[in-house]
Protein 1
Amino acid sequence: MSGVDLSVELAGLRLKNPVMPASGCFAFGREMSRWYDLSRLGAIVVKATTLEPRSGNPVPRVAETPAGMLNAIGLQNPGVDRVIAEELPHLRQYGVPVIVNVAGSTVEEYVEVARRLSDSPDLEALELNISCPNVKCGGMHFGTDPRTAAEVVGAVKRVSRYPVFVKLSPNVTDIVALARAVADAGADGLSMINTLLGMRIDVERRRPVLATEAGGLSGPAIKPIAVRMIYEVSRAVSLPIIGMGGIVSGEDAVEFLMAGASAVAVGTANFVKPTACVDVLEELAAWCRDRGVRAVRELVGAAGRMGP
Amino acid sequence: MRFRIVDQREIARNVFRLRMEADRPVGWSPGQFFHIRVDDGLEHLLRRPLSLCEAEDDRRFSVVYRLVGPGTRRLARKGPGDELDVLGPLGRGFPLHEGDHRALLIGGGVGVPPLVQLARELRKRGVSVLSLIGFRTAEDVMLAEELAECGSVWILTEDGTAGRRGRVTAALEEALEEPPDRFYACGPAPMLRAVQSALAGRLPGYLSLEERMGCGIGVCMGCVHLCRDPEGRTRYRRVCTEGPVFPAEEVVFS
């Protein structure tokens, strides 16, 4: 990657490159470490963590859709105490900032998870998941009403000693209003977008494919929506954005950066190819090199500078 | 990894056997699966988990699949020389046990293919193999000759158009008359549940599970199945990395 400065800074975090896995597409890193050296990543984002262990939803939990997939995992995770004790320490060896995705059913639960994580030295930031479409109470409920979103963000900010990124749901009429509300409540950055609520029906059996009926749509199918939303939000709110939603190539990453993201997360592509994150990184570096782009930072927001 | 298709043909109604060759040797065991992209494009994003059916050596394998939708239809259009993007073999296959003399293999429908290489490995170790394989109707029967090279085969069809009439569970008692040391089963969940309940406490064995799968490498938590650990607690386990083969007594059917 000689010649191209890939480093980015967001909310005080210095990343040696802008590529990280999206939460839920990487588990807690152990499996992925068999496929490549995780120290090559810009950051590591681990699976959503809740106060108590969660076993998740019944199966089927996944289904393919055109250029995408639906999932309804339901936040399966071992609970914050075991994440702190068993999952985060082993990630230190990679020398990469660790971002922990936090989910909950009540404001109090978000706050308690954030408080316990604040006592751990093994992370650099929180990503507040107020946009999971796959749990009955909580999750997306917090991310679709600006006032509720602001309430949970404000409460978490009061207890967290780490920067707080807020992962926004695209399942809203006006995502800029949501972004403004969480920015005003003190968010340090935004992650966008989470999955879009979708559904598939098994026509032979005349019923939904997923056990939960609906699930979160991800993959290249949602990329144009993500790019548009990041573009809109980045022009309205001055927070750094981690962009995600269907990135499978270096050129996709460039598109997100140009739309206004300061870093990118690779999600569904990890399921297609275990090395997706580092492949995107290499392609991004090559793209910059081929075009004489000296620093990846130059690309951030490039598409919006001229004005419409 | 890239695999080159050697050939593929329809071996039963809507069921294809695809032979493929890896560009370098890979380790494998019977009961593992290959995670295969049907196409390099973005339309069909997720891989298809297809069980290893036969291993000629460390590079040449066959898998068997049924046409179920646009993705498998696309795969069926591929021919000799075409390349496939393949991960694997992945997962935990069928454990083989020293000292076993007699094994009972139970397969239903597209659950039969992984039993073929298992039967060959058992045969190589001098284990005598009885395969009970069940299908809906005569047109669905497959791989009986391959299994017959490794031992006895009893074919059952639900409508009686080939072999005996009925489901594999109907022949289980008779199959136990010469007591096997172990059973290995692969097939639809109702069959596995019936086999498990008929053999519980009588014969140790393994069930190979199928679940809609995402990544295949243990990160997405898509393909979980409820299992009971030795302490009696139930929890979801990942079919792709902790299975697809599980000790029969650990599997919980809801």
Protein 2
Amino acid sequence: MTGNFRTVKKKFIIIAAVVGAVAGICLGLLATGAVLLALKLSGIELHWAIYVAIGVGVALLSGAAAFFIALPSDKRIAKKLDRDFALGEKVQTMVAYSAAENPDEMVLLQREQADEALGAVAKKRIKLGGLWKFVFIPVLAAAMFVAGMVVPLDKQVDVGPQDPPYDITETQRTALLSLIADVEGSELTETVKTPVLAVLNDLLGKLETTETQTEMKAEVISAVKAIDGHVSMINNYLGVYSAIAAEETLKTLADAVVDGAAFYKASGTDIQAMETVTQFYKNAPQEIFDCITVWADEVKALYGEATTISETGRIIRNYANTLYAKLITDNTAAPDMGDSALYDALRTFISDMIKLSSSSQDGVGVAIFRAEVDKAVDKAVSAVTSDLCVQSYNCMMDDYVRNSLAKIFGLTRGEIGSNESVVPDFGGDDDDGPTHSGGFGPGDVEFGSDDLVLNPDTLEKVPYGQLINQYNAAIQERINAGDTPEELAKYIRSYFDKLYGGLGEDE
Amino acid sequence: MKNKEQIKVSGDNVEKVKAFSASIAKVKEELAKDVVGQKEIIDNVLIAIVAGGNVLLEGVPGVGKTRLVRSLGKALELPFSRIQFTPDLMPSDVTGTNVITKEADGNMKMVFNKGPIFANLVLADEINRATPKTQSAMLEVMQEHKVTVAKQTYVLSEPFFVMATENPIEQDGTYPLPEAQMDRFMFKLIVDFPSIEELADIVNMTQITMDETATAVIDGPTVLEMRELAKTVPVIGEVLNYAVKLVSGTHPELADTSDTAKKYVKYGASPRAAQALITAAKVRALMNGNYNVSYEDINALAYPVLRHRIKVNYNAVSDNVTVDGVIGMLLNEYKKYAK
């Protein structure tokens, strides 16, 4: 090709390079802006280097593609030159015959003439008609990029569970040690106290090295489950219930046993303080006695209408045999004699009933016989009450330890799980249980806890103490999710600690 | 003489190529001495001569047709003859005939008397007045460049050029050339009545002398060389296709023809039209000092090449659309291909 054509062609190459560069930059900005906008609206944030990589990659690829598309062939260049500068198809003819082997003089002359015509054109500017149609691309690219930069990250979108790091705070350490001290000073028997203390101390040790919130929660929940297990191994009143509740004549005894052991549940009070346990335990004998008395009255009423000793004896024998069959014979979980005070009390009751029913009662009147039977029943009531006080205390302490651990480490009731293997949850509206006025319970008078306040979710009037627990659980959940700056979280924890009577970090 | 050898442009011919347009310019200059105006006619006539074609001229009497051919003969140093066609003109009057002559020794022998056709430049005046037989004899000679009389063939000397005329006024008692015969003419040129200024110049010039004053500037062999040189002018495929598309666009029966042809044309141009376009375009390019054929060359020659090869239909007649009008519409419709 001639020198002048090459000179003109260079201009086209430069134009194509400029078009490629502009297209690459525009498309790079467009792609970056689009990805940035889409991810921001989805609440996803990536490292800035990724966006740069996307932009540069798209720019290079699209720029190269645009360059090769914009770069015209020699034929197209020739056509444009002939058209724009009215050269009478000289350049096109020159290009068409440029590859001719052994060109004749006419072709050579034509080439010479075309080159001469191009000599004048080479100094002129190439017309870039039609490029104005693409002006919307840079505008769109700039708009998309600016939009991507300006639009804020949508943080409300749930980006999935996060696992923030965990370090046990001084408050938590202190609270856990306080809980351990409470358990140590409690009325728990050694059989259950020792393993519970072991679990709590083990938990303290593990939390010193736990690194994430998830691990911390798992350790706490594991400790709670372990404590539930130890308590439910010692408490067997639920076993008595399971063994005899299906028998119609024994239903009252079964309910009385559970109502007695879990008497404190009827109030709907969450045991959050050792003082509450103490207070309930002080009331336990009377409360449990009242529950067991319901059964005693029913039994007494069974033989109360009998007019003869034999009839009375038959009635009590049947009852005792039924109880024995269900509680001992059919119950594979029945412990041996001496391994459970509750079972022993009921065995003694059965034995007394059988003895009375088979003993000779010559010269004894029905009333006197009946009085003997009543004594046996009353003895059983006392013995059962006595043991259920202990078992009830175990349940109360289990509740207290669970609630304390949940409060200290910000776990919700759902995360902790229920302890129905230890004590059934009657709820606050159980008709069987005694009613309370709400709040922390008798003796726990802090911040007007008996006051009724409006629950904004249910629009019901509920005790303040119940509502504050919900608020505490909710705020702990948000703190643990990492939504709250640490400085603010410290103040929130301190606030609720004070509300619950705990120590703030600044004390 | 007829040079049958293809002259390839060699290094020696470069100067001749470069001198082509200068030579033509000189011829025009000489013709301008005798012919006032008619620049386009002169250009096309020269194109036809160099391209090896013949020209059909249509114009009223007295516009200088005979003077043009005579002056041309002088400028090209070529013998010229004029044949006035009349209804009683016989073919032998054109070609010549054998006559018995007595030699010096008293023997009788047949001698062929050449007719007026035996010239390089022939003016066939009012060819449409001759009978079809005489017309066909004339046209056969135009095609073959040879005369056969009594089984004897006589080759005409090259370059051989015929300029036939038709009188558009006196159509009574004429024999219009059939389309097949018209196709043998490379061009059909319309000679317009001169303008007032041109007429004044004609009057002034002919007051001095009626004789042609043109002098020879090139000769017959030079014309033949120029013809061979013109054949080597390159033409790109796009321009060739454009010419072909123009010709096929005159055929209404074709699938991808023009809208103009579908509306106004009864019969389209023959393939000779495409040949004529390209051949003439090469000469025109060279005459204008260009060494390649352009779209502009094709467009400029479309009228003289196509006007006698297209027959318009009744739609054109009723819409008062002439053949030239149809050609103009066709060029307008196809100008998008000439880019």
Protein 3
Amino acid sequence: MKKTILTAVILMFLGNVMAQQANFENAVKETLTLLDSAKTTTDLQTAASKFERIAAVESLRWEPLYYHAFIYINLSFREKNGDKKDALLDVAQNDIDKALEANGNKSELYALQGFLYQGRIQVSAMRGMSYSQKAAEILEKAVKENPENPRAQFLLGQNIYYTPKMFGGGSKNALPKFILAKELFEKETEKSDITPRWGAKSNQRMIDACNKENS
Amino acid sequence: MKIFITLILVLLTLGLHAQITVKGKVTDKLGHPLVGANIIIKGTYDGTVTDSIGNFQLKVNADNLTLIATYIGYISQETAISTTQNPTIINFKLKEQSNQIEGVVITAGTFETADRKRSVTLQPLDIVTTPSATGDLYGALTSLPGTATIGEDGRLFVRGGDGYESKTFIDGLLSKKPYSSNVPDLPSRGRFSPFLFSGTTFSTGGYSAEYGQALSSALILNTNSFPQKTQTDISIMSIGGGVSQTFKGESSSISAGVEYMNLQPYYQLTTQRFEMNKYPESIGLTLVARQKFGDNGMLKIFSTYSGTQFGLQYPDLTVSGAMSNISIENKNNYTNLSYSDKLGKGWFLKSGVAFTIDQNDLNLQSYLVNESNRNVQAKITLKKNFNNNASLLFGTEETYNYFNQDYNEVSTAFSNNSNFNDFETAAFAEANYRPISKIALRAGIRGEHSSLLNDNNLGARLSAAVKVTGASQLSLAYGNFYQTPEENLLRFTHNLTFERANHYIANFQWEKSNRIFRIELYKKDYKNLVMYNAVEYWNGSLYNNLGKGHSEGIDVFFRDRKTFKSLDYWISYSYVDSKRIYRDYPIMVTPPFAPKHSASFVAKKWVQSITTQFGISTTFSSGRPYNNPNSTQFMDGKTPYYHDISINCSHLTTIFNKSTIIYCSINNLLGRDNIYGYRYYSQPDTNGVYEAFPIKADSKRFYFVGIFVTL
């Protein structure tokens, strides 16, 4: 009798933990669905607010921080005022730093850091030289951590695409990266879990843009 | 067992509590609604965001709950819900984080440029592409207000101040001889390439207590932090060439370069005012190394050596029509080591030591002047950030200065040697406080002791800034500045005290989306300036600190990078009314280095289709005073106005697939015969008139072509 109850309790405890885990994943997934369908800035902010709440509870998880940063970087691209752009990116930077402390996926977080640096360039073209170098550096690190990471390749492609031709940039030089990224995106099986999987569509758009320019 | 059942029951009953509604509003301190603020029920994923008027509404279980409100740029706030009242009303008033970029920064007296900030006035690239600068750091700074173009000197002359009143600091440490040496009446240039620096703070007054021994101005340069990649740079110029190699590792880097300049081919192709005995020739070596320690520690080593030789024929002003051979040889080494690190808990350390060794041999045919100067400065600074709103900086600095001069008159065999050692000890502290993000206050104090003068000084530095609207702000600054008299004044006596200046500055700045406008009013009072007897300049007992002076003026600056596509331009205007009695002046007059009006305009246009940038700059300044011995009034002469138009273009291309910049420039395009002042023969001619010899540039125009390749 005692044993049965003990087992039941243990099971229940485990169940609770598992339920919590499932709860976390569901919450992230739900918010990701919200993010996928987000169109307006307000939609993006709503999704970001949810990730912020999840991150506040799950201090050991890197994913909500990752997505919160991801949304803020996207918001910075939509923002026109340079100071506000920087303020949004400062929030994202803080998230990335915390996510790295929480032992998050290094390759994904480095890739996101590269994306953030690209956002910094938007503020002032004067920053182009130093930040595109910084972005390239950290993106190479992301590839080193996981050569299969399609987002790192896609962002490297973007970096090259927006670098002037005479410095080895331009669509011709960028295309191989986008094509490699495409292969990797296809390999990235439709994961149902909560790890990052964005980028395939944007990558396709860049491939189309490159092909159009070179045709 | 009962416990277990209870536990199960408790678990089961969770979620059966009565729900209540919590409503409220999130605002800032002044009651303005914050839209889209995040309301979090602590410990859960649940919450909401505020609507377009800052309101929120939530259904919660009336347990002991805590709500958190967060908003970008504001400090989060938590409130516990203790009542079971339905509905419960909870309002949040959030405080601003004042480390926000929008927070006000004190701008009185300073032109700051850094990678992170956008309120930049000049970037390293801007310096190189300013046509009138010909790649010289100081030349580019004279396109900013508050500076005067003194063509025969080349140093910085700020707000009616003499050239010696401006000091250059590299990574926080003094650079004793930042200018190249030249013969009298021909300009010197900055020793250091503008590409070595990523951040520049040019202060035309009221600067931080961290920097001392400069009456007028501090130019604070920060060397590049870490190279981006391993690369080779080659430059081929019409006046010389150079090569440098950079190696970059994970946590360390080193780069070494050599540059050789020889103006002989150029001078043989163009016409010069003077005949050259020895064409200008120089060799320069540069070593830059970086070592990272841990996450934030960084050791920087920066060392340069340069050797220069130059000789020409200059009128012998003692005998009409005679020429004398004058020549100069200079050897200079500057080494700067600095270490900076974050110590945790908001503490930040900056320390370093800088060495200058300079040997200058000037041969003026009838006499020889051999000077050597050694200067070592060690400095340690600690900074503590208490929170976002307050910080304290303090430190100490020790400077050793050795000067030796041998003076020999060839015909009379008269010789004189003077030398001295000076140990200067300084301590400083400065507090920064931002009560709200719209207001910034800074108060500093600096004390100095000189062993040579056997004297102390203590100066205060105060400044404040207030944000008036989102884009505009007002700043005020006040400060006491001291400087040990120049070496040549200490040759015959050490019985002098520090020269002194007080600055009062009021600044208004407006900045919005790539346009910046600033206007600054200032007043500068000089006291204790060194005076001596013009005839008996060697008589130490006739030296005193009774000189004084003042400068009042207005500086205006406007830069616009927005209105016209790919066009960047800036306009500067300065007015200064300056008078002083110092050195051997018999009366209070406007000195030659303080033209009343100065204006400059710089414009750069990037043409994407041919990947070329075109630049034009023009400088105008009103006539400068000079002393005419034929007149009974001291310093009552006035030169014609100064005017210069310079153009350049930089073309980006690839040669053998390597990125290449082709650069060319022409200075003084119109070939205007600018006169900087006059020298007079020491004896009157047969009519009893002292004959004048105008001081001018050695060639009317200057052409430059260079190719810069990165491998």
